[in-house]
Fold these 2 entries.
Entry 1:
Amino acid sequence: MVRRHDSIFKLASDFRDMIEDAVDNRVITDIYFSSFPRGCCGDTCDLLGQYLLEHGIKTWNINGTYYSNYDEKIGTYIDSQSHAWLAMDNPRYTNDYIIIDITGDQFDDRDSCGRYDIPVYVGRWMNFMGCLQYMVMKCLILVG
């Protein structure tokens, strides 16, 4: 018997492969995807969320920001890093949800984000995500 997480991982991996192939073969020439996965997490989540929905999997789009280097003179943080990923369960009701992230490896060279280097992740909340202050940005479902 195939576990549901295994089938979601397969769909997510296949989707990432399709994006990489489309960029490599210049099918996608959009400037935002030219450095995939860097800087593509929001758009990728929108596309992956729709793809998963077409396969009967409902997700929530989450966006988080990591803040560092607080400047007391101006009263704010001067460095930040945002990231987006999908959640399987409504994060408004639980912090123990399944994450689907196919662009996390864009942080493989950043100490502030723990040098996260996993290209496709489907699983529980991780330390990397825990460093982000997150909020639910939008829900891709609840119709039907």
Entry 2:
Amino acid sequence: MRCFKVLLALVALNIFFSDPILAAEKNGSSAEHPWKLRVERNGVKVYNRDVEGSPIREFMGRCVVDAGLYTVGMLMLDFPTYPEWVASCKDLRSLTCRDALNCDLYYVMDLPWPVSNRDVILRANATVYPAENVIRVNCEAIPDDSRVPVPKGYVRLKAMYVKWILKELPDGKTDVTFLSWSEPGGLITPFIANMATTDFPFKSLVNLTKMVKLPRYVEAARGMNGQNYRQRMKLGL
């Protein structure tokens, strides 16, 4: 059933962090619908849980990467490389940017036949919290956006969110959390869509751990902190 594993896409919320910024992300349904651990291998944990009012589960992937916070942050902002590491990502590109930390994005998921490809237009906002050593990226579908026509044979996602939370640890590594939920649309049943809530985040996080070791991200993040990271991104550097 490999062709169905990419239907839920991107991004991250860690309800287990004690940091107050992250704790504020908890929602009222967490007690009624607790996270269930589904996969734990190669340093990656993947959870999913039921969502009130939806047959589609949300997922959360977590791992610790051997790279600094701003190294991972530079990868997050390198949109053209997403097909290299995000599972089944065919294309991710910016449509408009208020600055480098706030963009509208066009995202395409490449799904093997007979499943139709999915696309979506997302509003993405990255926020840096220097005092807490945290970067948060939030993305949410813009359902009625028509800037990019739906390609023939594609299904446009109308409801989707993606969250990444990156938290630097005392040893210089980065705790990465990736959470997402979406309504896949089309003729995909909830049973099939829910199969994607383990394999998709697992593969993406395994690939991320490799990407952050590339010299271009290590060098780009050298000497960065919360203040100059935000400034350089506003300047588009």
